[in-house]
Amino acid sequence: MKRLKEWARQLKRHLFVLYFACRDPRVPWYAKAFTACVVAYAFSPIDLIPDFIPVLGFVDDILLVPLGIFLSLKMIPLQVRADCEVRAQELMKKGKPKNWKAGIVVLLVWTAVFLWLAMWLWQR
Fold it and tell me: Residue 29 in 3-state DSSP?
């Protein structure tokens, strides 16, 4: 259990590093775009796959977010990562920022899916 808590703490620290890295001008545009998506999704208060859905609800939290973090960290130059680590440690003391814009996008996607499904069922 101790290893699991440490792994979760590292993921959180890496998210904060990515939060600062995607705003750094030294990061290539493609890495910024991918990193911004990972950070926005991770900090979003709404999941793409809701947690109440058995098994699938936790796939994004257990697999997708860590995979996105891992790939993002590989795209960021080492010097930028080192600089962002310092800033991330300061931010971790304050708490997790919320990304309501990403949450709204996810909410709109789910609304569109439900509307499409309702229209499809109505036509049947």
Answer: helix
